[in-house]
Design goal:
Layout lengths: L1 H33 L2 H17 L5 E11 L5 E12 L5 E4 L2 E5 L5 E12 L5 E11 L4 E11 L6 E3 L3 E5 L2 E5 L1 E5 L4 E12 L4 E10 L6 E4 L3 E4 L3 E5 L1 E5 L4 E12 L4 E10 L6 E4 L3 E4 L3 E5 L2 E4 L4 E4 L4 E4 L1
Antiparallel strand pairs: 1-2, 2-3, 2-4, 3-5, 4-5, 5-6, 6-7, 7-8, 7-9, 8-11, 9-10, 10-12, 11-12, 12-13, 13-14, 13-15, 14-17, 15-16, 16-18, 17-18, 18-19, 19-20, 19-21, 20-23, 21-22, 22-25, 23-24
Length: 319
């Protein structure tokens, strides 16, 4: 009887152990299914980082934060991140970093946010991917680049990699960028392409973007090509007021229509407000087509209606 009771107790214990083992196995199998997409994304991001560097992290800090002070013991910037990972032979990795810069009076100057960044031993921060920049005047910039370096001493933002700038109703692609934080001016370096949502495209070089005092001012003194549906325009520079939706094509201007007709002038204004596409100038005009050769002292060209009005002592001949 005692032997039977012992076997019964042993079988009961084994059954309980088996049941517990099965439960733990089910939990291990089902747990990944209930993890949030954000958790999976972050785990994948960290794993990719470790794999690409061929090493595991040395230290992990959640809710990381760091204050930096200048030579006058004034707070210059504040860094925080959801997570901080340090590596032996590589810069530290910041997950969801936020950097706040302060001016000389101690007020917030501008704020940068991104999904990830590298923090170097020298104190430099290199943002990766899309970066949101919020200025103290309430205006914002969105930039997508492989690497955006934050100059801790100057507070300038620099990228030597291709940059995509996402503005209001425009997307601008350039070969690099330098943002001068003190005057809220940005220089998009090298060949620059401005794609407007309305379909027009502007090709130029070294484009400046100024948003100081609430303005939205884009300008370049380099040769510029304006590409529209029915016209290609060549100019010596460009000056854009994004608030008024007005473009100034500077210097000598040549308009080539899809029909082959040509118009040469100077300092052409393109009015894009309220859905318009109107070219205006009060400078000398030389209009040439297969049947006409006309000189005038002003022009109003409605591209949508395809109507050209030449003004001011119009002289010409027709064949």
């Amino acid at each position: 009887m005692a032997s039977f009771q012992l076997r019964h107790n042993l079988l009961s214990t084994i059954s309980i152990i088996v049941i517990i083992g099965v439960i733990w196995l089910l939990i291990a199998l089902l747990l990944p299914l209930f993890s949030t997409p954000e958790d999976k994304k972050q785990a994948s991001l960290i794993q990719n980082q470790i794999t690409s560097k061929g090493e595991t992290y040395l230290e992990k800090i959640d809710n990381f934060s760091l204050q930096e002070f200048d030579a006058k013991a004034q707070l210059s910037h504040f860094v925080k991140a959801k997570s901080y990972f340090s590596f032996k032979n590589s810069p530290a990795l910041l997950i969801e970093p936020k950097v706040v810069f302060y001016d000389e009076r101690g007020f917030k100057d501008y704020v940068l946010n991104s999904k990830r960044a590298h923090y170097t031993d020298s104190g430099e921060i290199k943002f990766k991917g899309e970066v949101s920049i919020q200025s103290s005047n309430g205006l914002s910039h969105k930039i997508n680049t492989e690497e955006l370096l934050v100059g801790i001493k100057t507070s300038d933002l620099i990228s030597k990699k291709p940059v995509t700038y996402l503005g209001e109703n425009v997307k601008i692609i350039s070969q690099g960028m330098h943002m001068y934080a003190k005057d809220d001016t940005m220089k998009l370096i090298g060949r620059t392409k401005i794609n407007q949502d309305s379909g027009q495209q502007i090709l130029t070089k070294d484009l400046y973007i100024s948003q100081s005092k609430g303005q939205k001012h884009y300008y370049s003194n380099s040769k510029t090509t304006y590409l529209a549906k029915k016209n290609t325009i060549y100019a010596s520079g460009v000056d854009m007021d994004r608030q008024k939706q007005v473009i100034q094509l500077l210097g000598k201007v040549k308009i080539v229509q899809d029909s082959g007709s040509k118009i040469t002038t100077k300092n052409l204004t393109i009015d894009q407000s309220n859905g318009l596409e109107v070219y205006r100038t009060k400078e000398k005009i030389h209009y040439q087509s297969n049947i006409a050769d006309i000189h005038a002292f002003g022009m109003n060209y409605d591209v949508i209606e395809q109507k050209i009005r030449l003004t001011g002592g119009v002289v010409g001949r027709y064949e």
